Amino acid sequence: RRFQVAPGKIIDTAFEHAVGTRADFRSRGVGSAMIDAARRFLHDRAEALMVYRGAERSPGYRFYEKSGHRDLVYMRTLTWRPAEVEVGDIGVGGLEECLAGEAELLRVFDAAFGDYGGFRPRECGYWEMALDDMIFSVIAQDVIFVRYPAEGELQAYCIATVRTGERASEQVSIMEVAGTSDVAVREVLLGVGREGTERGWPVTTIACVDSPWRMLMRQMGFEEGLRHTMIMGQPIAPGRLFEKVCADFDAVVDLKIDVWSPNYEHTIWEGPDAKREITVEGKDLVLNRMLMRRLDVESAVASELVTIAGEQADDRERLAAALPYVPWEYHRIDWT
Hints:
Layout: E1 2-6, E2 9-15, H1 30-42, E3 48-54, H2 59-66, E4 70-80, E5 91-93, H3 95-100, H4 102-113, H5 126-130, H6 134-138, E6 141-148, E7 156-163, E8 172-179, H7 182-199, E9 203-208, H8 214-220, E10 223-235, H9 238-245, E11 255-260, E12 265-270, E13 276-282, H10 284-291, H11 297-302, E14 306-309, H12 315-322
Parallel strand pairs: 2-3, 8-9, 11-13
Antiparallel strand pairs: 1-2, 3-10, 4-9, 4-10, 5-6, 6-7, 7-8, 11-12, 13-14
């Protein structure tokens, strides 16, 4: 699937899903062999393997860590149990109302997350595809769409769901929320809160550290838990990955750049005017994050999380210009 690492920087990824080994075949290398086979098969098709994970102390998490995946972003659950909610000028509908205005959704989403990565790139047609994709087909859910204002130019929206059928759950789950201001987002969150109070259920969501609405939600009464979920990933074509995510090729035009970790080493870039070679050294976690635009490179070098063999005076600044840190936000609607 296509994945936005940074504004305008889209890579091809393969998200692992429903990976498991029969009990009597466990601890025999079967799972690791499957991941190895996926790497080989996907090398010319994608730049990275990724997986949505949780439970950092679990055998499942350790399996992915052992197979080369490292944490790229952390999310935490927020839960709201409002006793009473007064709403303003909002409109409430369902799936039909949500999909009727995809162009407006795209405009508001871009206003909110234009400087972010961490999600599938949005375009008209995305929401229709996502809300009809695997998870929403397998797990029956009713869509609640809240917009602000009720009429006129859209300023904020929230897409939430309620699970029904065999896997029904007594909560209202926010799938995506976006807005042009905190004031507008507050209005749609109040609207979703009322949907919860009318049912006697809590409202839940997942937010990243850099979420633009996390502090607003806490001010409104959302209770924040410990970090709960993460996107794990690993590069499988590091050179192609660098070329797709680099923000400033001029900064490294005269460099050949290698990366080295205890578990892998690659040449990720050779500039057209390359006159010298540097090797960026670090643990897998740090280098994976650097290549996915999730590392403050200058701070990492200053604190020796990253070291540079063959470094000259301004190399760390040039590397930071090529791979600047980008905030990520996770949207539940992407988990399909």
